[in-house]
Amino acid sequence: MIGKILKGIGGFYYVINDEVIYECRAKGIFRKKNEKPLVGDNVEFELTCDTEKVTGNITKILERKNSLIRPEVANVDQVLLVFALKNPNPNLNLLDRFLIMMEYQKIDVVICFNKVDISSDDNTNEIADIYRSAGYKVIITSTKEKIGIDEVNEILKGKSTVMAGPSGVGKSSMLNTLTKEVVMETGDISKKIKRGKNTTRHSEIFAIGNDTYLIDTPGFSSLFIPGMTKENLERLFPEFEPFMDKCRFVGCAHINEPDCQVKNALADGLIKESRYENYKLIYNELKESEKRYD
């Protein structure tokens, strides 16, 4: 049988096939191959002889379209990245790190700034402009006032979307609004998987329309990007693209070199200061990390 993994907890994987959810284990062959089934994987599985429950064993992971490093999910089309405009105030350094991570993995991102009902217009416009000018799609929402929800629903249609963001930004309220509080849990699954009222502890898929899936993920507080180097960091800031190959020096780091077109674009307001400062910070972190490794 073939199905899709909706969630995985404590060595159990919950696989949906024809609207039936099967509690599955992964065969030992995956450990030998150092492979791990991920939420979103399409898998082959076989049924086990259990008269009380619908159970099975996953025997094969089908070819992935892609997979994310953190959060660990597979076969996604885009990320809906949720940050609050206030309570908590947006951590733009963390936001930029997540965007770098998605750029590195070539995953499209839509940024959702939530809680506009408690944010000033000036603050909202200033923050939204930073990322719109960098080329990102930005949606302003309030789940409390139902602002921007229709726009979010439109960008989700026909796609598998990961919803990610730090804790406390209203992701659970957003999920309830988008899914109309429909929870894909039945029978023993709801007994085994208990969620805190406002806390997501594991990645989980919700079917919210025809060929439309929303993947809820745990909040994040730090990010790590294997294989990242300081030399390829500039390519992960889309707004640098028109300028970085016009610098005076080949291999310009856009920090201390003269005649740097990226810094000229910064001075002209074409690149936002917060984005550039985070670029420098992460560049220097990567530089120090490489020194320690050497």
Features of the shown structure:
single chain, 294 residues, alpha/beta, five-stranded mixed beta barrel, 23% strand, globular
Structure in words:
The chain is α/β, with parallel strands linked by helices and 294 residues long. Helix content is 28%, strand content 23%. The chain has nine helices and eleven strands. It has a six-stranded mixed β-sheet, sandwiched between helices. A five-stranded mixed β-barrel has the order 1-2-3-5-4. Helix 3 (121-132) links the parallel strand 7 (108-114) and strand 8 (137-140). Helix 2 crosses helix 9 (273-293). The longest helix is centred in the C-terminal third of the chain and has 21 residues, at 273-293. The protein is globular. The termini are far apart.
Q: Please estimate the helix content.
A: 25-40%
Largest sheet: 6 strands, mixed
Low-confidence segments, given as residue ranges, are 181-199
What is the mean predicted local confidence, pLDDT? 88
Lay out the secondary structure.
Layout: E1 2-9, E2 12-17, E3 20-26, H1 29-32, E4 42-47, E5 55-61, E6 78-84, H2 92-104, E7 108-114, H3 121-132, E8 137-140, H4 149-156, E9 160-164, H5 171-179, H6 188-192, E10 204-209, E11 212-216, H7 241-244, H8 261-267, H9 273-293
Parallel strand pairs: 3-5, 6-7, 6-9, 7-8, 9-11
Antiparallel strand pairs: 1-2, 1-4, 2-3, 4-5, 10-11
Helix pairs in contact: 2-9
